[in-house]
Amino acid sequence: MARRAEIGGADIWQVEEITQKKPLSAITNDVELLARLPKWLFPRFIDTESQVDIVSQSWIVIVDGRVVVVDPCTGNGRNFPDFPPAHMLDTPYLERFAATGVRPADVDYVFCTHLHMDHCGWNTLLRAGRYVPTFPNARYVMVRREFDRWDSRRPDHVPVPANAGTFENSVLPVLEAGLAELVPDTFRISARLQVEPAPGHTIGHSLLHFDGASREAYFVGDAFHHPLEMLHPDLDTQTSESFPLTSRTRRRIIDNCLSRNALVIPAHFPCAFGGALKRDNGELMFEPFGDARAPPGAPCR
């Protein structure tokens, strides 16, 4: 389904690919930490079976006269045997995208926070036996540092089995079509959209900062997978190429969002437009923005 929000003068659509369950134990088995879980985590972020929802989703940001797609998910029929949540998906993602009223040909920019399969898969689609760009008129913005990390043509490339084939199928076809824009760590897409570094999960991992007229927002990719990592930024779930960098990135995002009353929009949270970080009696809490469970297409403010 697709949901819409009006944030800081931007029209933003969320397009969901798939929601999957994951045991809380995959995030932490720390008995003391689990004994102190705040009530606001239940049931939205931890259900009665001690499971958490992990959502694969994209956003369409319409602002400054541009249409920007953020993190175009996994894609259908992709072979990822070493990462079952992304293996051979068959979802109506393109139909949900179309339900927003935005056509792939309308997209001006595509931004991938990083080049894991579930953040760049729909960069391309399979047509007549070859992968071609899904968004034929877009500039695909990728941070050079991240591109180089996953460029399997490099003699110093270090492969990750779970992500095998992503560069060849979802990145290289864009480059060969002349649509790739390889940018420095900080890069301005438009007056109110700026790419900024957020390393750790991958070495070139980035975020997209929306400097809205009345509200800022940070699309932070996989800096956080679950609100527990906001409460405990030193919680290492073994998903980072450099966890010390991840921890520093998390703390910087938390500080920025608290001081600016900015929305933080992580890639996999079960709330369509992320939410706000707040202090309640000195304790950090995450408050989802709007009603993330509103009917498809319903506006959130």
Characterization of this structure:
By secondary structure, the chain is an alpha/beta fold. The chain has one domain (2-300): Metallo-beta-lactamase, Chain A. The protein contains seven helices and 17 strands. The protein has helices at residues 31-35, 93-98, 117-120, 144-150, 166-176, 228-231, 243-260; strands spanning 2-7, 10-23, 51-63, 66-70, 109-111, 124-127, 130-133, 139-143, 180-183, 187-190, 193-197, 206-211, 216-221, 263-266, 275-280, 283-288, 299-300. The strands form three sheets. Strands 9-8-5-4-3-2-1-17 form an eight-stranded mixed beta sheet. The chain is globular and about 55 Å long.
Summarize the structure.
The chain has a single domain (2-300), classed as 4-Layer Sandwich (Metallo-beta-lactamase, Chain A). It has helices at 31-35, 93-98, 117-120, 144-150, 166-176, 228-231, 243-260; strands at residues 2-7, 10-23, 51-63, 66-70, 109-111, 124-127, 130-133, 139-143, 180-183, 187-190, 193-197, 206-211, 216-221, 263-266, 275-280, 283-288, 299-300. A hairpin with a 2-residue loop joins strand 15 (275-280) and strand 16.
